[in-house]
Amino acid sequence: MKVFDNKYLRRIVISIQFITMVLLMVMAYNVQFIPMTYLIGIGVAFLVVLIGEYFLIFCKKERSKRSLITQILSLILSCFMIVASFYVYRTGETVNLMSESKFQTRAISVIVLKDSPIKNERQLPKHTTGYISSIDPTSMSYATNEIEKNVGNIQLKDFKDFTALVKALNSQTVDAIVLDEAFRSLVEQSFKTFSEDTRVIYQVKKDESAVNAKSVNVTEKPFLVYISGNDEYGGLSAVSRSDVNMLAAVNPTTKQILLISIPRDTYYPLHMNGQLDKFTHAGIYGLQESIDTLKDIVNEDINYYVRMNFTSFVKIVDAIGGITVNSPAEFTTKIGKYKIKKGENNLNAKQALAFVRERKSFADGDFARGRNQQRMIAAIVKKVASPAILTSFSSVLDTVSQSVETNLSSNDINALVQMQLSQMPSWDIQSYQILGEPQSQPCYSMGGISASVIVPQKESIEQATKYIDQLMSNEKVVTEAGNLDQ
């Protein structure tokens, strides 16, 4: 008993608790997640406990059981605060990782037929290589220059569109082709077995610039976020078309979020050259092109972006423990054959993904899918913004940091979390969808070949910009669809 009750050991025990308490408070202050009023309250509570333990340890007899029990509890509390400090530190690092500048990588491949005698890039100078110089000339010029630096001069034959390019490869008019992987999905629309019939013998990588944010005080000023999703699995860094396109206007003062859905096939001039194309194709030229083209549509600066894919979505829904979403109609998804009932549906990650991908069950196809995607985002916001998320906050944040790209800074993210924790507001989520008429029109990215598009209604775009202007001016926005959270 004397070994454990001597005054030196007691001083060490109380000192350890004091040091770990200070460490935890400093970590929490630096991360800036916890509102200052809460942080002060926690600090005061820790101090009261420490003072109480001091008296119980030092103002009792050396052989007092109460003194010994208090010392044991003090050590347990110190261990808890060490663990808590680690998780707070990791949370801070996770936020910093999530807000790091992201660079998209463009992959440009040299492709041959599967049974071609060409085994590697060194054999290219002896053969004719097809390419398209008129679509995204900057990337194609970069790729061909890099190839020639590595293998020497090559014989290039120019084509006007992907149909002519792939037909030339299949007929062996050319022995190889140069293809930006961002365009592979366009090629496969016409040539379904293209990937199975060919192989890549060489690839050039090109890093694209990060998208800079137009920062505002996110807890005081309204801001716009471009939400981009692509229909791929795996990593996010590759340049690709954007199949889910949504603009979120957020007003932290009125606690309103306006979700505006832009159909993927919206027919609009690309910002970079004024050529008419599907909006989804803007992503092929990089995230900045999608943002710039969207800015042209709504006539507003886009402050931030959030980008994800199928893998991201599944991981996020898994991390928050599933999702409850309201469906206005009953249907069965083509993927997975999941039965969705009218009203509330409790969905796991795979069911949720099938829900937001479904379009064939609806008469208005992509428009209905866009509305369901809005409902899903509203449901995720509702769950993440609720007190229930606190129990899995660390794992959710860790998942988001690895699955989502954004140019929101760590300070912006911390400020938003702090605002939500201190106020716990219930967000009013309104929605609107840009409408248009289905037509067949030539698309720049397809070499002028006509494709199914949605020609947007001028009145619909004007209504979208009117709603955005109202929200940005701190006016209450009420759309025909109403509050998606109701």
Automatic annotation (TrEMBL):
<feature type="transmembrane region" description="Helical">
    <location>
        <begin position="37"/>
        <end position="56"/>
    </location>
</feature>
<protein>
    <submittedName>
        <fullName>LytR family transcriptional attenuator</fullName>
    </submittedName>
</protein>
<feature type="transmembrane region" description="Helical">
    <location>
        <begin position="12"/>
        <end position="31"/>
    </location>
</feature>
<feature type="transmembrane region" description="Helical">
    <location>
        <begin position="68"/>
        <end position="89"/>
    </location>
</feature>
<keyword id="KW-1133">Transmembrane helix</keyword>
<dbReference type="Pfam" id="PF03816">
    <property type="entry name" value="LytR_cpsA_psr"/>
</dbReference>
<keyword id="KW-0472">Membrane</keyword>
<keyword id="KW-0812">Transmembrane</keyword>
<dbReference type="InterPro" id="IPR004474">
    <property type="entry name" value="LytR_CpsA_psr"/>
</dbReference>
<dbReference type="InterPro" id="IPR050922">
    <property type="entry name" value="LytR/CpsA/Psr_CW_biosynth"/>
</dbReference>
<feature type="domain" description="Cell envelope-related transcriptional attenuator">
    <location>
        <begin position="241"/>
        <end position="385"/>
    </location>
</feature>
<comment type="similarity">
    <text>Belongs to the LytR/CpsA/Psr (LCP) family.</text>
</comment>
